[in-house]
Amino acid sequence: NKENSSSRGALIVLEGLDCCGKTSQSSRLYKYLDEQGHSVESWRFPDRDTGVGQMISSYLANKAQLDDHAIHLLFSANRWEKSVLMEDKLRSGTTLIVDRCSYSGVAFSSAKGLDIEWCNAPEIGLLAPDLVVYLDISPEKATERGGYGGERYEQLEFQKKVAKSYLALPDSSWKLLYLPR
Ligand code: NYM
Fold first, then answer.
1. pLDDT number for residue 156
2. What is the pTM of this model?
3. How far is ligand 1, taken at its centre, from the CA of residue 75, in Å?
4. CA spacing 20 to 30 A to 149: which of 108, 137, 143, 176?
5. Percentage of the chain lying above the pLDDT 90 cut
6. Element of type H or E holding 170
7. What DSSP string runs through 95-128?
8. 31 CA from centroid of ligand 1 (Å)
9. Paired strand residues for 175
10. Residues with CB under 6 A from ligand 1
11. What mean pLDDT comes out for the span 136-155?
12. Long-range CB contacts (< 8 A, 24+ apart) of 143-151?
């Protein structure tokens, strides 16, 4: 329906390695769209405020140990528990800028060696973004940034694998943004 599609909000996802600059770009985009008069919200995954999000957060802080498959499914469950609200927001005309989504789920878990098809399965049925922006920073450059290394996964060798996984993900809504190195 043309009327609905023109009045709904856009789902914009930002992706990339840890410390690639998603948070900064997300707030710049938010400010821009807000100033243009759009109804817009900034979201991020994991959403650490839910029960599932708290389990994820303690895993990332190395306070809890979980099987790789189990944490993968928790990340996905964290998206599913927000999916109805997400759809409602978009339908009511609010544009969502989302810092990480299913692509992070698949890229990070498959970088650990989990089967990519298995990783993708629990994501099937979640809303497809209108646009995915991948901030392409080199893993080496990211390590130089403030706050790096505080959480699980924030290690150069692992981030190199994640970068490869990201670039192997096929998606037509994927836009590669090459930042100066
Ligand atoms: N992460 C994030 C995953 O491994 N799977 C996912 O599905 C999502 C959404 O969590 N290193 C990883 C990527 C990050 C970490 O993200 C937390 P952030 O943007 O630092 O809060």
1. 96
2. 0.93
3. 8
4. 176
5. 83
6. none
7. EEEEES-HHHHHHHHHHTT--HHHHHGGGTTSPP
8. 24
9. 133
10. 18, 45-46, 60, 75, 99-100, 104-105, 108, 153
11. 90
12. 143/19, 145/19, 146/19, 147/19, 148/18, 148/19, 151/18, 151/60, 151/61, 151/62
